[in-house]
Amino acid sequence: MNFNAVVVKNEKLAENIYLLRLKSEKISHNAAPGQFVNIKCCDGLDTYLRRPVSILRTHGPENTFDIAFMVRGKGTRILSCLKEGDAVDCIGPLGRGFTLPEKGERICVVGGGIGIFPLLYLLEKSAGAYKAAFLGFRSGGLVVLGKDFEKAADQLIISTDDGSFGEKGPVTTPFLKYLEKERPDRVYTCGPAPMMIKVADACNERGIFCEVSMEQRMGCGIGACLVCVCRIKHNDDWAYERICRDGPVFRAEEVIFE
Amino acid sequence: MDLTVNIAGLKLKNPVIAASGTFGFGREFSEFFDLNLLGGISVKGLTLAPRKGNPPPRIAETPAGILNSVGLQNPGVHAFVRDEIPFLRKFDTCIIANVAGNTVEDYCRMAEILSDADIDAIELNVSCPNVKEGCLIFGSTAEGISKVTSAVRKVCKKTLIVKLSPNVTDITEMAKAAEYSGADCVSLINTILGMAIDINSRRPVLGNVVGGLSGPAVKPIAVRMVYQVSKAVKIPVIGMGGISNADDAVEFMLAGASAVMIGTAGFVNPYVWIETIEGIKQYMEKHGFQKVSDITGALIE
Q1: Cβ within 8 Å of A, B 2-31
Q2: Are B93 and B119 in contact (CB under 8 A)?
Q3: pLDDT per residue over A59-86, tens digit each?
Q4: In CATH, which of 3.20.20.70, 3.30.70.20, 3.90.230.10, 3.30.230.10 is domain B3-52+71-190+215-293?
Q5: Which ipTM was obtained for this model?
């Protein structure tokens, strides 16, 4: 399950946001929307752990897959400097992804910041569904993959906190307005916790199927270390479940947000 | 080439054991390699009742290591016996049940339950830094170790290993207390109490504020402690702390360890255990060791 993926291209999408296309037949053929890969950034000891990065899309015929990430520390800085032909040690695909919609269903994705990345793959794999996408960013300079989302979704609404692109304000505002008129069959969300909580609450109140993609600091990425947990309801009680193995995608109604 | 080791009656096919708390109950890593290859598996720390564990974030990356504050999340000893032993027993490897308690009675009760279960050894965890009650309190003083070890010894029918904490003034005193009180073997080191702070939010990184440091960063401390303890006691020593490859494992054996446990390195390299076994073989070939047990304590001073 751990493979040497070869860098096909490294593209800077925005300040500190990069897209890597990697060649690995095993990962590109086995991945599903919502899953991730766990990447070893270097052999050095300063960035000791692997870095989990969600899969943006796969290209079956070329045996490649894309990941996109934001540079947040030493590990992601190293990843951002990879060049064509470099080999990367990847474990994956890992985790439990999104439940794909049925043909003819109406779906909504609500993403914030770098949380939009796994949602693109979901839209591209949801053939035959009517797809609306709500994406939120801090400012216009951070809007990425707009054209890809426009192609993958039937309807696209972008908002920015400072109003420098699209609607001004949080992405949850246009989404909640949408819910006043429409009732999607499925809603999927990934991004900052306050955004996901609003989306989850709105869907739970209305009894709409909703899945959330959770994030937490990870250790092993395969479920052995019990580090990356979130609280999940179990009848009248709750338990910490592993985001890397039992998730990262959970049903919104099961999650107890911190 | 003889890779087998006999640790106080516990027969291992090779000296490489998966360390407790880093290997779950083997299920996840069984997807990567054949667990039959391992000398042994020390399972995730068990408590009498199930434990939810500590709030996240439970990990912080530090130079050449990690801090964790999992807090012994586990399904409890009864669920382990019922749900996990049948799976582990499919593999020809030694099963070491790692147990942690809040009271001496907890440890004894678990030792009784596990003495009747199909496992090979019991490892008393008196050194987890991430739980507030019991556990580390027992491991912090020679009296505490004596108290819990001698009580468990009376009811334990399996090989009894006591896992020592490095968070003490003199670890040899703790090892001697374990030996005197009836331990068959000591394992060391558990994690070193540490802390990380996010300077931007000015908050501790870990949900539990402090946690246990492991990984290559702790290795020199662990080697030193294994060296000192192996000189201070007659019972076998299992060494661990920052082992990432065969060279590290051999270093621990030269310092006096009869076997080694590898944990944190498996988070980065899921094949570290089997690569280490292979590497030990190569070392033996290169240096003319016929029996792996001859490496133990072969340090030239």
Answers
A1: 21-24, 27-29, 31
A2: no
A3: 989 999 999 999 999 999 999 999 999 9
A4: 3.20.20.70
A5: 0.93
